[in-house]
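Sorry to interrupt, but I need a hand with the structure work. Please put the record directly below this note.
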Amino acid sequence: MTSVSAPTERPESPVRLEARSEHALSRWLWLVKWLLAIPHYIVMALLGIAFFLVTVVAFFAILFTTRYPRALFDFNVGVLRWGWRVSYYSYGTLGTDRYPPFTLADVPDYPAHLEIAYPEQPLSRGLVLVKWWLLAIPQYILVSMLAGGSYLSGSGGLAAALTFFAGISLLFTGRYPRGMYDLNIGVHRWAARVAAYAFLMTDTYPPFRLDQGESES
C-alpha cells in the first residue's frame, strides 16, 4: 500500500500584512490622491530618517545584547505600518478611499494592517552583521522588481503597474479587478517580510513565496 504523506505546513511568518477590500471605490479620486497624500509624504520622510537612526541603534543593541529594544522595535513597526496604510490608500495599491490616520498604532477599523511579532528569543549576533547586506541580496533583487525596492511606499515595479491598470479600470468601469488586487497585496506582503528581515527585526529568512489575497490565514 502506498503511503500518502501529510502536506508540509508552511512555517509561520513573524510578519502579518493584511487588507480588506472595499467595493465602493471612487472612479476619479485616485487621480488626485497624490495631492491629498502630501501631508503623509512629508511625515513619512521625517519618519524615514528616524527609522534609519533607530535601526542603527538597534544594530548595536543586538550586537552587544542579542536583543532589539522593545520600544525601538515598536516604533519601527509603527513606521512600517504607517507606510503600508498610505501605500494602500495611494499609489501602492489604491485599495481604499478612506484617508489614512496619522498614527503609528494599529487602527482596527482601517482596512490595512501590518503586525510584526517581537522576537522573544535572542537574535543572532552573527546574522546581524551580514543579513541586511549579504544574505538579503536575492530578496532585494526580487523586491526591486516587485515593489520598486521601496518598503515604506511600495509604489514601484510590478506593484506600480498593477495599481496603474487598476486605476484605469476604476475610471472606466468602477471596478478593481480582483486578480490584480490579490496579486498586489501579495507583492506588498513579500516586501514587508523582506523589510522586517533586512531591518533586523527578525532572523526568519523571508520565503520565496507570493502569498496573494487579503489574509494569509
